[in-house]
């Protein structure tokens, strides 16, 4: 029975990926998605009801009048609840579901790097236009940050097994003249078995829980954000978890003439070790990374390698039920591409073909306040710095960003928000660039 | 474009935010500060916090849906544990000595209802029955609210 059902679900997953119409199976998956949607809506309703009851409790004079009505609207008694103590109640076959989000971004910037620049849609603080070189005043409309995901999970003797595939539309191609069609791009594609994860997702050096809630799908200057292929093992240690990962390496260097090099000559994986805890006051995480930067350019004669390290402390602290502070602090001589969308290269290549690692540091603070169950705000500031000793004149030396938003979620799956963004960068030679941006976004998750 | 902010401006911003955070810590209401780790008030606040975190998962933008599922289950189990502990704490000696037998019996019954609802929620979470978590959470919340309406604001 379970084998038959499992096979049917696998066929459904395949049909969904290939776009083949297998109506009955697809309908079953849509039902599963609908169940999840119902679940989310009910959680929101539950929170609202608790708040309402708490409010009524604050007025003792009404207590007598409300007690009876509360009793009559009680949910089914526990005697009627489903018994789930039997281990056989746990689903055995794979459960597959499809979902995603639709997102509209309307972005007004006071400067732009020019036609088709992705920085007009999302913020890349290390690449904003320099003063006196950028185009002025640009309005950009886009639905490219919409996403589609497919997930599957099941229980096994080795622990839970899952798979996840997520795409967005921030790939290449497309223009705004007629159809606004853009290529899909892989965000995540990974499998899990017990504590083992393999595939592409956020780097272990990135604390996803510390990323701020922004309209902008870009990045705060002091944030870490890299997705890449990796192999990771996670183990529970005391009250926390330890993760050890080997991840795809990629060297980025600034050549003596100032151009960026990605030599693709790496031979060792980036190695990450992370410890994470979730305490009553919030969650925090300490991560370290060791990696090799290497170039082997037979034609140019540059052959060198260097090993560096980096560390980060990040997390989210909660202050009551309405406030929270997300934070990230990172530093080291091998941070490189992991910080602020590769605003700084990991090292410099001198005229003799030798690599010098670039020390750098960054920090981000993001305060979130819930005004009520529908409205919330986030104020986020980030800063990043790289040692400019010996750096090329056109390299970034420092940058900062500020994001401030007001978000409204009238129903559980829909959020509308307005965000003000300011970004600034300074080059080694003293030139600067600054950006003011206003971004409206509407998101609906399904 | 004549604006030329310097690094010190950024540092000042970060310091300002850090100060705001510390200020919020100091400004915590006396009731929250004085709540001891083992008091019913502590568990009641913890339940509210956990429900808020469950609600926040609806708006999550960065985690993958698989990660959100895991966190949802984890929070449900935490919520079940906190509710069960609260039921045990208040059920043993939750009413003042002046309460009559009828009140004590009703109070104990509500505490048992809360414990049963919490156990059911934990079992559903352990079985990964996502669609049944929310109705069961509502039963936990209902058990809390019924007791609050009948007893909490009437205590001397």
The geometry of chain A reads as: globular
Q: Summarize the helix and strand pattern of chain B as letters.
A: HHHHHH
Compute the CA-based radius of gyration of chain A. Answer: 25 Å
Radius of gyration of chain B: 21 Å
Secondary-structure element order of chain A, N to C? HHHEEEEEEEEEEEEEEEEEEEEE
The number of distinct helices of chain A, counting runs of at least 4 residues, comes to 3
Unreliable residue runs of chain A = 12-27, 59-86
Give the strand content of chain A: over 45%
Tell how many strands the DSSP assignment of chain A holds. 21
Oligomer: heterodimer
- First-residue to last-residue Cα separation of chain B: 66 Å
Greatest chain-chain contact = A-B, 85 and 68 residues
Q: What is the helix tally of chain B?
A: 6
Largest sheet of chain B: none
Structural class of chain B: mainly alpha
Shape of chain B: elongated
Query: Percent of residues of chain B in helical segments?
Result: over 70%
**Strand pairing plus helix content of chain A: what structural class?**
mainly beta
Rounded mean pLDDT of chain A is 85
Termini separation of chain A comes to: 31 Å
How much of the residues of chain B is beta strand, in percent? under 5%
Describe what you observe in this structure.
The complex is a heterodimer of chains A (446) and B (156). With 446 residues, chain A is mainly beta. Chain A has helices spanning 2-18, 23-57, 63-72, and strands at 95-112, 135-142, 147-156, 159-168, 185-193, 196-202, 227-237, 240-247, 253-254, 260-261, 270-279, 282-297, 302-319, 323-332, 347-349, 355-357, 360-370, 375-386, 396-411, 414-427, 432-445. In chain A, the strands form 2 sheets. A 16-stranded antiparallel barrel of chain A has the order 1-3-4-5-6-7-8-11-12-13-14-17-18-19-20-21. Chain A has a 4-stranded mixed sheet with strand order 10-9-15-16, with no helix packed on it. In chain A, a hairpin with a 2-residue loop joins strand 7 and strand 8 (240-247). The longest helix of chain A has 35 residues, at 23-57. The two termini of chain A are 31 Å apart. The model of chain B is unreliable at 1-8 and 18-37 (pLDDT under 50). The radius of gyration of chain B is 21 Å and the shape is elongated. With 156 residues, chain B is mainly alpha-helical. Chain B has helices at 7-26, 30-34, 40-56, 65-93, 101-126, 130-150. Chain B contains 6 helices and no strands. Chains A and B meet through helix 2, helix 3, strand 3, strand 4 and strand 13 of A and helix 1, helix 3, helix 4, helix 5 and helix 6 of B.
């Amino acid at each position: 029975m379970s084998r038959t059902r499992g096979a049917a679900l696998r066929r459904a997953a395949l049909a969904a990926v290939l776009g083949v119409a297998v109506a009955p199976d697809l309908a079953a998956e849509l039902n599963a998605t609908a169940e999840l949607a119902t679940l989310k809506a009910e959680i929101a309703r539950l929170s609202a009801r608790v708040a309402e009851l708490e409010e009524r409790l604050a007025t003792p004079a009404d207590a007598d009048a409300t007690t009876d009505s509360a009793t009559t609207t009680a949910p089914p008694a526990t005697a009627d609840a489903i018994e789930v103590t039997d281990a056989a109640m746990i689903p055995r076959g794979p459960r597959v579901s499809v979902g995603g989000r639709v997102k509209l971004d309307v972005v007004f910037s006071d400067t732009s790097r020019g036609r088709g620049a992705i920085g007009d849609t999302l913020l890349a603080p290390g690449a904003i236009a320099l003063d006196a070189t950028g185009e002025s005043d640009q309005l950009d409309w886009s639905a490219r940050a919409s996403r589609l995901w497919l997930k599957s999970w099941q229980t096994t003797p080795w622990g839970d097994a899952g798979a996840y595939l997520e795409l967005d539309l921030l790939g290449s191609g497309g223009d705004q003249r007629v159809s606004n069609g853009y290529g899909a791009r892989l965000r995540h594609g990974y499998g899990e078995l017990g504590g083992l994860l393999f595939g592409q997702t956020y780097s272990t050096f990135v604390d996803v829980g510390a990323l701020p809630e922004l309209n902008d799908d870009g990045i705060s200057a002091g944030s870490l954000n890299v997705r890449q292929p990796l192999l990771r093992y996670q183990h529970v240690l005391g009250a926390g978890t330890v993760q050890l990962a080997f991840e795809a390496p990629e060297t980025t260097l600034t050549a003596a003439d100032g151009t960026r090099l990605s030599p693709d000559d790496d031979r060792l994986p980036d190695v990450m070790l992370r410890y994470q805890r979730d305490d009553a006051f919030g969650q925090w995480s300490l991560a370290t990374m060791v990696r090799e930067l290497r170039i082997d350019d037979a034609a140019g004669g540059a052959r060198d390698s260097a090993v560096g390290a980096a560390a980060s402390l990040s997390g989210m602290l909660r202050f009551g039920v309405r406030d929270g502070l997300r934070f990230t602090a990172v530093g080291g001589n091998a941070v490189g591409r992991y910080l602020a969308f590769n605003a700084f290269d990991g090292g410099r290549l001198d005229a003799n073909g030798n690599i010098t690692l670039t020390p750098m540091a960054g920090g981000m603070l993001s305060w979130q306040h819930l005004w009520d169950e529908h409205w919330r705000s986030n104020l986020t500031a980030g800063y990043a710095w790289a040692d400019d000793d010996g750096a090329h004149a056109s390299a970034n030396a420092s940058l900062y960003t500020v994001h401030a938003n007001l978000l409204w979620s009238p129903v559980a799956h829909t959020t509308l928000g307005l965000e003000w963004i300011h970004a600034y960068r300074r080059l080694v030679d003293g030139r600067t660039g600054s950006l003011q941006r206003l971004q409206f976004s509407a998101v609906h998750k399904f | 474009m004549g604006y030329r902010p310097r690094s010190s401006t950024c540092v000042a911003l970060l310091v300002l935010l850090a100060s705001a955070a510390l200020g919020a810590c100091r400004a915590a209401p006396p009731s929250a500060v004085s709540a001891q780790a083992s008091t019913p008030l502590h568990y009641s606040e913890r339940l509210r916090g956990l429900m808020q975190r469950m609600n926040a998962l609806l708006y999550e933008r960065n985690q993958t849906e698989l990660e959100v599922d895991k966190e949802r289950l984890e929070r449900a189990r935490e919520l079940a544990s906190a509710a069960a502990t609260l039921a045990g704490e208040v059920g043993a000696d939750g009413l003042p000595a002046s309460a009559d037998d009828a009140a004590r019996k009703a109070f104990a019954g509500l505490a048992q209802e809360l414990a049963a609802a919490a156990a059911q929620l934990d079992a559903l979470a352990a079985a990964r029955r996502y669609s049944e978590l929310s109705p069961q959470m509502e039963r936990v919340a209902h058990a809390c609210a019924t007791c609050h309406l009948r007893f909490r604001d009437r205590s001397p």
